[in-house]
């Protein structure tokens, strides 16, 4: 089974084309943590002792939350999960995170922030697999 940790360049271009200028964007993150964080090629941020993927993700969030707030973004929801009620039984996720950004441009600026990028390796070390789904609000059913 394929695993996904980073956005492909084509996906980034498509995201910008389809979402730019359309208001707030919510990013739905599905997260599967490694049993043991993998800091191979990330020696500059590697903790002194071995930690779990969940602990590495907490380090990532500790560094990222202040930057999110500074960028005008916010955490809408974080929760632990596992198996789907409806969905493929081969996909299991440890957590789901919803992050609201004021706009596509704000999200892109945040994701390219040098201070953010300096700590993004904790996310890479933490995750075995992930999904990131951008969502635009719709008033269709309200």
Could you characterize the architecture of this molecule?
This protein has a 4-stranded antiparallel sheet with strand order 2-3-1-4. The chain has one domain: 2-Layer Sandwich (Alpha-Beta Plaits). The chain has 5 helices and 4 strands; from the N terminus they run H-E-H-E-E-H-H-H-E. It has helices spanning 9-19, 53-70, 104-111, 114-119, 121-126; strands at 25-33, 74-80, 95-101, 127-136. By secondary structure, it is α+β, with helices and mostly antiparallel strands. The model has no long low-confidence stretch (mean pLDDT 94).
User: What CATH first level would be assigned?
Assistant: Alpha Beta
Overall structural domain count = 1
- Please list the strands of the largest sheet in the order they lie side by side: 2-3-1-4
The tally of helices reads 5
Biggest β-sheet: count, sense, barrel?
A: 4 strands, antiparallel
Rg, Cα atoms, Å? 16 Å
User: Which oligomeric state applies?
Assistant: single chain
**Shape designation:** globular
H/E order of the elements?
HEHEEHHHE
Helix content: 25-40%
Summarize the structure.
With about 140 residues, the protein is of the alpha+beta class.
Quick tags:
globular; 142 residues; 23% strand; single chain; Alpha-Beta Plaits; 4-stranded antiparallel sheet; alpha+beta
């Amino acid at each position: 089974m394929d695993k996904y940790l980073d956005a492909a360049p084509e996906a980034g271009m498509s995201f910008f084309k389809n979402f730019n200028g359309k208001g707030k964007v919510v990013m739905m993150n599905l997260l599967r943590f490694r049993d043991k964080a993998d800091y191979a090629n990330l020696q500059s941020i590697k903790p002194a002792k071995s930690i779990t993927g969940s602990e590495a993700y907490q380090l990532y969030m500790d560094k990222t939350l202040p930057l999110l707030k500074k960028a005008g973004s916010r955490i809408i929801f974080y929760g632990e999960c596992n198996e789907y009620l409806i969905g493929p039984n081969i996909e299991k996720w440890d957590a789901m995170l919803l992050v609201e950004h004021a706009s596509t441009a704000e999200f892109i600026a945040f994701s390219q922030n040098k201070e953010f990028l300096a700590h993004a390796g904790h996310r890479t070390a933490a995750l075995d697999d992930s999904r990131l789904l951008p969502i635009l609000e719709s008033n269709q059913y309200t």
